[in-house]
Amino acid sequence: MAPRPSMPRLLVLGAGLGLVPRIRAARAAGFFCIVADDLPVPHGFVVADAALQVRPDDVAALRKGVAALGGVDAVLGTNEATALAAAQLGRALGLRGAAEPEIVAQGLDKLAQRQAWQRRAPEYHVPHRLLRGPEELPGLAAALGGFPLVLKPQRSTGGSRGVSLVEGEAGLAEAYAFAATSGLPGSAVLAEAALPGPQFSCETLLRDGVAHCVAVGRKVKSPPPARVDLAVVYDRDADQWRAEAARMVGALCAALGFRDGATHTEFAATPAGLRPIELAMRCGGGLTPDLAGRVGGVDPFLAEARRACSLPETLPPPAAPIAAEACFRFLLFPPGQALRAEIPEGLRQEQGVVAAEIFLAGDGRIAPLRWTSQRSGWIGLAQPPEASPGVVARSEALAARLRLHYADGSAHPPLPCGAAAAGPAEPARHHPAA
Fold this sequence. Notes:
Layout: E1 9-13, H1 20-28, E2 32-36, H2 43-47, E3 50-52, H3 59-68, E4 74-77, H4 80-93, H5 101-104, H6 110-120, E5 128-131, H7 140-143, E6 149-153, E7 164-166, H8 172-180, E8 189-193, E9 199-207, E10 210-221, E11 229-234, H9 236-239, H10 242-256, E12 261-270, E13 273-280, H11 288-296, H12 300-308, E14 325-330, E15 336-342, E16 353-358, E17 365-366, E18 377-383, H13 391-399, E19 403-406, E20 411-412, H14 419-422
Parallel strand pairs: 1-2, 1-4, 2-3
Antiparallel strand pairs: 5-8, 6-7, 6-8, 9-10, 9-12, 10-11, 11-14, 12-13, 14-18, 15-17, 15-19, 16-18, 19-20
Helix pairs in contact: 3-4, 6-10
């Protein structure tokens, strides 16, 4: 397809199966969509207008490829490493919508984030300590206020790699080793107090320093020591935190010097108020923008693409009721050697189903869950808030119809994710302002 002169040219860094909905949405919204990746099976290449078979964080190779294709108007990253590459490439190309690489680099450095918040947004400070070696583990819990603790790489590519929730002394050494071997080269280990209370994520658009929260989702987490999302539920209960989350994200981004762009922020509603867990200077991954767009009325990925291309955009109204409830339900299957996936015919076409996919690694091996890329697929569902059954119950019913077939002749549905058992989040004693 040759782009029409009026079509903005968007480069998306990443072409995995999980990005196919983003690429399709961008094309449907009128962008000429170029994707870049070096995956053995780059699913996004099939649905894009053009492709570059280069590593999505190789700025020099990307620059050459973009020049060969006639240039782009904007570059968007899809994880922490490619968000930084997008900023670097955008600045090198002189794109007006590009972020400053020095600011975006803080998204890769959890210590830099926390130090900035401690200095410039102290109301959101979370006790933490940088560990240079395992010899610093004795006395760590006492220094941070006791167990439970969270250990993670100081610098990582995201996806919960190296992250552990530690509930006692016996788990410290293993958690330290996991964090130390899972980060970027040269990364130290960061320890911090585990935050009490329900956990959430919010999708926010920053415009001239003002935070516009699109949607808030309640997280269902895997059992310790892993800290992987099993589901994210965007319902009216989670939406009660939208205004306060916007204030927090605005303060956190101001502390980082980040004024224009998209953020995916994880936080806990503690008895003392909202406290940050992570802040990424990019849209949430996978189906998050699709679902958030249905809930809050604005697809944050497309809004960010329009901002980066200097196109007019619509921002989410601050107090409007949510347009839909949604569930991003991840699929986990029993460990073993899988052969093939089975998704019933017609399931993807049912009312409200945004997507249903089962992902299998090339070798078919299903490993015990420890980080996000080990999940085996997802279901995304959005429906009116008043619909019955509710979005969680329907997601579970849909998941129960899927099967994974194994080499031993068995077939299994996804494991329960606990979203229904988790129930609605209890408001913290520090209730959000109306």
